[in-house]
Every structure is written in C-alpha cells, then in structure tokens.
C-alpha cells in the first residue's frame, strides 16, 4: 500500500490570503508556544517546521553590529541631503545587504529597527545623529523614503520590515527612563505625532518601538496612543517592539507598577507585541506573562492579538513562502559591498555636505598648497549604530587623492606628552612584537575586531625612556591617549591598561580618561579612567586601574598641538581646520551634550590656524550643530560623519568637482542661551525650533550655499478643490552646474492662536546646468494649513489670509504671495455644556501634564508641587453660571479668576489617598455670563483633571 503524502497545512498554502494562513498557524500553536513568541528571541516550533525568529536588526545607515557592511552617512547627514530619491536608494542598498548578509549568517535579522524619526527639537540631545530633522515634514518625508527602500516594491513580500524609533517625544538621554515629556495636545498632534503619522500612512512601515521615557506622566510602553493613534492610522498589522530592558523599567526604575506581572500585562494591553528584555533569555518574560494570565490580568485573546501581529510580519518577509519570496536569491556573493553600493555611499556623502559660509575661498584652486589640520583631519569615525568599515576615506586621504600628497601638509594638532611617574620613570607602551601580524591586516591597518578588549597584549609599564603619547582633548575634561603606532590606551576586563583599541568605542567607552589635579603635588595629576571610575596605578606587573595606590603623573610636553598647527598653516596657501566630535564621546546614546561650543582645545587649534593664515576654512565633521563664530573665517562647511566615502566626498566638494547642495535639517543656534531647557518639550510655548524661534540663528533651518547662484521667479497659486497648486521657476544664474533645494513655506497671517513663524510645506532638490531652469510645482492639501483646535479636540482650518513663501531657506525667502482660504470659523468654548479638560489649556506657566489614570487620559499639576497657572481663552458661559466643579487628586488649592481680574473663588483639596484617587469639589460663584478668559492658579501637589460649570 502506497503511503499518502500528508496534506499541506493551510498556513503553508501560498494560494490563501495571509490572514487565513495566520489564523491557521495561530490555531496550531499551543498556549506555551504563543507566549514564547512574545519575547524578542522567539524559539523554533519544530513539530510545525517553524523556524526561530528574532525581532530587531539595527540598520540606521547601513547594517550595524554584524561585521563589515557598507557604511552610509549618519541619519542627520541623510536628512541634510533633502533628497527623498537618494535616501530611498540608500534604504534599498541597506535592505539588500541585510538579505545578503543573512544568507551567510542567520543571526542577521530581517525585522530592522530603523529609521529613527524622533524630531531634533533640541541640538544638545546626545542622539542627534540618529534623527533626520527638527521639522516634522522633512523628517516624515525622509523617513518614508528610507522605509520604502527598506521594504522593497513587491506588492506582497517585503525585503525587510522596518520599525520606527522611538515612540514618542523622546529627545533627551539625561534620566531617559524616568523623565516625563510634558506634551500639550497641540504639540502632540502638530509636532511629535505628525512625523510618525505621515510615515505610517505611507504604507511601508512594519511597526514602531516605544521610547524609554514617559509622556505626560505615563511610560511610552503602556501608552494609550499606540491604540488611539498609531493603529488608527492604518489597517495594517503593525508590530510594536519594546526597547531593550524597557519592560523591566516599568517596575525597576520607573516604579509605575508594583509587580512585573502587572507591568507586562499593561504593556500587552496597550499594544506591545514583542518584549526586548534580558537579552536572549526569554524565561523572565514567559514567567511574567504566565503569571499575568493566572492573575486574570490577561486573556489568551490578548496574547493571540500580539502573536498575530508578529506572524503577519513573518509572512510578509516570505518566511513561509521561500519559493515565492522575490528576495530569496540575494546573497553575499553578488549583492554585498557592490560597486553600486560603493558609488551610492559616495553620492550620499557628497549630497550631505552643507556650505555654511563662503567669501570666495572655496572651491580650492588646483595649484594651492593646502594645510589640513585638526583632530578629525585623518579620521573616519563610526558611531554606535555603524557597521564595520570595509572601505575608509578620511579628509586627509581624500585630499591626497584629489590634489596629490606633495601639495598637502598635515598637522593633527594633538598635544604630544610623556607621563612621568612619581618614581621618575615614564609610562611606556610595549611593542606589539610577535602579535603584530595578528593585529594588523594585509595592508598594515589596525584591525579593530582583533584589538577591542584584548587581554593577550602586554599591559603598559614604566621605564626610564617611556613612550611619547598623543593626548587628545575632546572637551568636558575627557581625553584619549594614543600610542605612536595608532593604538589607543584602553582598559580591559582584567583592569590592565593596554594599547589595544583602534578607536574609542563600545557601550561603555574604555578608552577615555580624565586628568585631575593632585592636591599633594603642585604639578601632579591623577589619571582617572572614565569607564570604571578608577585611577591609573603603576604596579610591578604592569599599569592598571585600581581602587587605591593612584599614581601621580607629571605631563612633559614634547609639542603643543597649537604649535604644530600654526607651523603647518604658515607655509600654506589655504588652511582647512577639520574639527568636530567623536560619536562615542561627549554626546551619544546615554549622554547628552552640555554645550553647543566646540571643545576648548579645538577652538585653540582653529585660532592658531587663523592667526597664522587668514585663508583658513573651518570644516566641521560632526553629529550635531555647534555654536562657532564665523566672523573672521572666509569659509565654513559642515557634514555629518559621512561613512566610508566621507573623505573622498569632502575633497571633491572642496575642489569644486561637485558643488555643495546639502541644507541644514535643523537650526544652528548662536549660543547656549538661545536654547530651552532640555526637558521643555513645549515647542510652542518655549518658542523652539525654526517654527517658533524669535531670535537670530547662527545659521537657519534649510540654509546652505552653493558655488553658483539661483534665481526664483513666477510664483503662482491656483486654488483647487481641497488643495492649492503652487508653482514657480528656479534658474541657475551662475557658471557652475549645481544642486538647489527649492523650499516652500506657509504662514498664517493673523492667527487666533500662536502659529509657526513659517512652516515647511514642500521641497524639491534639483540639479541645474548653468543657465538652466526648472519649473517646480507642488500640490498642498488644505489640511497643511490646519492647526489642532484644543476646544474642538480635532484639526481646524481657520479662515483668513495665509502667506506662501518660496526660497532657499526658512530665512532666505525669494518669493511670496498670500491667499485667502475659507475654513471653519472659531467659536468660544462651550464650557457650560462640556467644561474644561485641564490639559486643553491655551497657555500655561510652570505646569506639567501628567497621567489621569495609568490607562488613559491627562491631568495637570504644578511643576515641583509649587504654583502653576492655566489660561483658557474665549470661554462661553451663555446666559450665566453660578457654580464651579473641579475633579482633582492630591492636596492643594485651585483658584479661579476671569480675564486676569480679581479672584472669584478658591477650592481647597485636603488630600486624597493617592495620585489617582480623584474627588470632586464644588463651590458657588457670582453669576458669570457671556465670553471670558478663564484663569486657574494651582497651588500645591495636586492633579487637576477637569473643571465644570453649572447653574
């Protein structure tokens, strides 16, 4: 008798819709198997032939953490290109390499955690390099382009499944897991949600990752916004992946829940589908979910809903249809590190360069003698989310290649020192010796993969001669020390100091030190290791960091960096000072910056070069803006860390082979005093970003110069049903082919509420030959002119005059016209019928928005429990009210006045059991009729949720 082939289960039947196949597979999984799927590392189900699955593969500007890959410019650099098509192609290349790398290493995941769409509201944010722009329109457009590239264009199957980071209002590293972003409704809808919404609605997003912080007093991982907003924007099954360790933070650091079972259940009910916690160990999460089930905090249906969304992504990635997966044939042999990817990396780096100032010094003449100086002059820096470089190009190397090494002089500008011990000996770096061949590659370059954290290399010693070290001062008292052969001093797990790192790096940077004055020695210093907090000591078995016996060192300078820079500058025709940051130091994930200023040492190098040679250009290579004084500098140029082709791209731009056409994706402020507090998320009330900033920026949003000139003409507007058609012409009026970014802004002329000074509505990057013109046309939906009306709790188009402005930046407006738009007239708030939700204020002073309950809603409280004020404009009381009711919790006083006049009544709350134990207070008032502004003053640590009026 012939054995029959078992029937194909429906979840394997590619003829069926994904939804039916997911239903079938879900029904075949046991409860324990489904629970196990909720962890980041979902195990295989061998009896069904289902493979293991891991959510999460970093791919911000190339495949990260998985070894060599093509490295593109940092995300903020991609934002500076203002080029959607280019960024889409970068996304295609990154996702192609992800697939190709997975073909040889199944640790590479296809659920990519990228891009970061957090708005660059505050330039001191340590992760500024990860975002695209301070503007929601530009951010969402670039993010949409990148996700479309990551997703691919097949109607059913995805090349990779991108997850947006980090939901929501996350723009600080300081206390990032315990701080709360107070976000008023207008800021929430017009600013923070908008960048996510427009990208999700474009249809190429697989999901989002909640941020570590709290928003309005509630952790993002239990935010009702996931259901109320995110999942309301699309019919697609979006996967919500937690950030690493964040589920445990709900109890451990945030103390928002008493037990992990409560916290885990609340996160699942809010919409979290995949828990990134405890590394590869899923047992904790499994135990917590099971406990929540036993306690009745969750149902199997809740678990199924989360697993269903995860399975939807896996089906879209072709896991269950390998024979139909259009991307299954991508392999490392033919689709990885291709010539096309190398060319694209250079194109992206070139387009990211922004010319900030130029008095004619650039482009460089072909016969110029060039001095290139500075700490970044011969560096190609990586960041935390970079892959390992296959190719590398530093500014110095790029200039050598473009102009010839004989015409380029180099001075790094580091201080060169010997460290003298209290015994009269000097710190000495042992030669690598027999390990040299292992440490260095075929061309003699240091291999970072081999060097990082090595314990087999000999530790430093002390001897009579010592070793001259490069002391590199990064500011904030942080320095690195480098041996003559390029190895950085580092501390391994055993505590010994070795010259064993190619670059500073790692989650905890082990290559950074602090010099502290020694109280017992006039010229002595203690050398403190930043990674461990311990001091360097000299022992018989080598130099180490220890809790005692700190060595006292004297610094003996062989050469000051300023002297080397001045010497190189004096003999050159043109000086290029390459300054900026190391992405692992003084501003990175877990660490915000403290100032906009360049480190003092780099300022000294810049001044030394400028004093020696007036033809000095500042080339900033950095992950964020700086406040620099360009007054006596003939040229200033900025680029983010540009990946593997950074140096080649920079040299080509400096030489004029390409004309810089990048534009600033965020405001560059002139001084720290221009900045709001890092935790002030009210961009409207705090007058933040180019949208509201009323000062004079150092360089405005959208700014960028060219080696040619462009003229704008013939601005026309045509009103259509539900939209405006806007057109104008841009002409290259100079003699150089170049790119221009035509920018369109709008402005409400006489708004009833504070509106942006101007707001980006559309943009287009075009490349024009000399004398050539481009006709630019945009269609603006009338919704682009709406604002969030807190009285109506929805968007509203206010009727009236609006300006439409076209130009080269937010401040360089070349054309303008106005248009009258019909809309919905405003009306006073019907407070007699609906009262006032406390968080729907028009103005506030010293007020924070907090959670009404742990599940939903907002309330307000005075900052630090002191005194705060709320203003609600144009409140309609009809023919009169004689009573007021407040819903509040805690302890304190609520005072009511109208129109800034005298106090009408006071309500005193004597204390409730807890912050969510609300009670109702009421009082009689003298009859109030007609329309008034309501002023509420809150005194003490109370929470106010709602105010009602009666009578």
TrEMBL record:
Domain CBM6 as annotated: residue spans: 834-950
Name of the protein described by the UniProt record: Glycoside hydrolase family 3 C-terminal domain-containing protein
Alphabetized PANTHER family for the sequence: BETA-D-XYLOSIDASE 5-RELATED, SUGAR HYDROLASE-RELATED
Signal listed as a keyword: yes
Gene3D superfamilies per UniProt: 2.60.120.380, Galactose-binding domain-like, Glycoside hydrolase family 3 C-terminal domain, Glycoside hydrolase, family 3, N-terminal domain, Immunoglobulins
Record CDD domains: beta-trefoil_FSCN_BglX-like, CBM6_xylanase-like
Source domain of life: Bacteria
Record lineage: Bacteria, Bacillati, Actinomycetota, Actinomycetes, Kitasatosporales
Organism: Streptomyces lutosisoli
PROSITE patterns named in the record: CBM6
UniProt GO MF annotations: hydrolase activity
Swiss-Prot/TrEMBL keywords: Hydrolase, Signal
InterPro entries to which the protein is assigned, alphabetical: Actin-crosslinking, BXL, CBM6, Cellulose-bd_IV, Fn3-like, Galactose-bd-like_sf, GH, Glyco_hydro_3_C
Similarity comment text for this entry: Belongs to the glycosyl hydrolase 3 family.
């Amino acid at each position: 008798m012939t054995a029959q082939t078992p029937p194909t289960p429906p979840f394997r039947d590619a003829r069926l819709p994904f939804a039916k196949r997911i239903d079938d597979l879900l029904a075949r999984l046991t409860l324990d198997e489904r629970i196990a799927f909720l962890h980041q590392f979902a195990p295989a189900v061998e009896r069904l032939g289902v493979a293991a699955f891991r959510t999460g593969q970093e791919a911000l500007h190339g495949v990260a953490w998985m070894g060599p890959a093509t490295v593109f410019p940092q995300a903020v650099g991609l934002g500076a290109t203002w080029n959607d098509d280019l960024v889409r192609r970068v996304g295609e290349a990154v996702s192609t390499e992800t697939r190709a790398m997975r073909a040889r290493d199944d640790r590479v995941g296809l659920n990519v955690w990228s891009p970061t769409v957090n708005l660059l509201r505050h330039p001191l944010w340590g992760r500024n390099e990860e975002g695209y722009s301070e503007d929601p329109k530009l951010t969402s457009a670039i993010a949409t382009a990148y996700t479309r590239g990551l997703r691919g264009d097949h109607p059913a199957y995805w090349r990779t499944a991108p997850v947006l980071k980090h939901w929501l209002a996350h723009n600080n590293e300081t206390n990032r897991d315990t701080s709360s972003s107070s976000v008023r409704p207008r800021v929430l809808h017009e600013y923070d949600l908008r960048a996510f919404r427009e990208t999700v609605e474009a249809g190429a997003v697989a999901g989002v990752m909640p941020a570590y912080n709290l928003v309005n007093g509630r952790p993002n991982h239990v935010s009702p916004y996931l259901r109320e907003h995110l999942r309301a924007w699309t019919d697609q099954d979006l996967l919500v992946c937690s950030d690493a360790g964040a589920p445990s933070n709900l109890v451990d650091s945030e103390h928002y829940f008493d037990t992990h079972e409560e916290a885990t259940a609340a996160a699942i009910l809010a919409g979290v589908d995949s828990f990134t916690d405890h590394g590869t160990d899923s047992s904790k999460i499994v135990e917590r979910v099971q406990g929540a089930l036993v306690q009745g905090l969750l149902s199997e249906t809740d678990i199924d809903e989360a697993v269903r969304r995860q399975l939807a992504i896996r089906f879209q990635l072709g896991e269950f249809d390998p024979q139909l997966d259009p991307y299954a044939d991508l392999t490392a042999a033919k689709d990885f590190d291709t010539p096309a990817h190398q060319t694209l990396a250079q194109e992206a780096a070139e387009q990211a360069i922004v010319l900030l100032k130029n008095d004619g010094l650039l482009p460089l003449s072909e016969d110029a003698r060039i001095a290139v100086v500075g700490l970044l002059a011969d560096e190609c820096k990586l960041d935390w989310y970079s892959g390992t470089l296959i190719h590398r190009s530093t500014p110095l190397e790029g200039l050598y290649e473009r102009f010839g090494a004989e015409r380029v002089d180099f001075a790094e500008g580091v201080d060169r020192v010997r460290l003298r011990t209290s015994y009269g000996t000097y710190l000495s770096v042992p030669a690598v010796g027999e390990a040299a061949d292992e440490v260095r590659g075929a061309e003699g370059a240091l291999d970072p993969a081999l060097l990082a954290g090595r314990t087999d290399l000999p530790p430093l010693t002390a001897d009579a001669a010592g070793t001259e070290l490069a002391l590199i001062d990064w500011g904030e008292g942080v320095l690195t020390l480098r041996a003559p052969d390029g190895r950085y001093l580092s501390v391994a797990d055993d505590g010994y100091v070795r010259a064993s790192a190619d670059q500073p790096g790692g989650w905890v940077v082990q290559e950074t030190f602090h010099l502290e004055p020694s109280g017992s020695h006039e010229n002595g210093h203690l050398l403190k290791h930043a990674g461990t907090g311990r001091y360097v000591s000299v022992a018989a078995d080598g130099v180490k960091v220890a809790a005692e016996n700190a060595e006292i060192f004297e610094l003996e300078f062989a050469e000051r960096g300023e002297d080397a820079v001045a010497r190189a500058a004096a003999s050159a025709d043109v000086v290029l000072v390459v300054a900026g940051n190391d992405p692992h130091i003084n501003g990175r994930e877990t660490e915000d910056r403290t100032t906009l200023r360049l480190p003092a040492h780099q300022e000294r190098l810049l001044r030394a070069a400028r004093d020696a040679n007036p033809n000095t250009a500042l080339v900033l290579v950095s992950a964020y803006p700086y406040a620099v004084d360009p007054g006596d500098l003939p040229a200033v140029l900025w680029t983010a860390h540009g990946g593997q082709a950074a140096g080649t791209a920079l040299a080509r731009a400096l030489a004029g082979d390409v004309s810089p056409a990048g534009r600033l994706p965020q405001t560059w402020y002139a001084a720290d005093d221009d900045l709001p507090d890092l935790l002030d998320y009210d961009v409207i009330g705090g007058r933040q970003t180019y949208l509201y900033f009323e000062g004079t920026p150092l360089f405005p949003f959208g700014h960028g110069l060219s080696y040619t000139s462009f003229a704008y003409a013939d601005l026309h507007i045509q009103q259509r049903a539900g939209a405006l058609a806007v057109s104008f012409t841009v002409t290259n009026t100079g003699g150089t082919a170049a790119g221009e970014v035509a920018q369109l802004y709008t402005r409400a002329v006489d708004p009833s509420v504070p509106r942006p000074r101007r707001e980006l509505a559309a943009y287009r990057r075009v490349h024009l030959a000399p004398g050539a013109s481009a006709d630019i046309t945009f269609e603006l939906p009338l919704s682009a002119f709406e604002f969030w009306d807190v009285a109506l709790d929805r968007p509203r188009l206010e009727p009236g005059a609006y300006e439409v402005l076209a130009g080269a930046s937010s401040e360089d407006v070349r054309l303008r016209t106005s248009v009258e738009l019909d809309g919905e007239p405003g009306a006073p708030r019907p407070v007699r019928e609906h009262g006032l939700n406390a968080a729907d204020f028009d103005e506030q002073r010293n007020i924070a928005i907090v959670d009404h309950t742990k599940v939903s809603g907002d309330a307000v409280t005075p900052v630090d429990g002191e005194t705060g004020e709320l203003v609600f404009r144009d409140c309609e009381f009809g023919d009169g009210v004689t009573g007021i009711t407040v819903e509040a919790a805690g302890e304190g006083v609520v005072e009511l006045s109208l129109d800034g006049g005298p106090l009408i009544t006071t309500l005193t709350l004597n204390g409730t059991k807890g912050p969510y134990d609300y009670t109702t207070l009421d009082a009689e008032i003298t009859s109030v009729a007609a329309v008034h502004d309501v002023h509420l003053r809150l005194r003490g640590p109370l929470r106010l949720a709602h105010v009602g009026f009666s009578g």
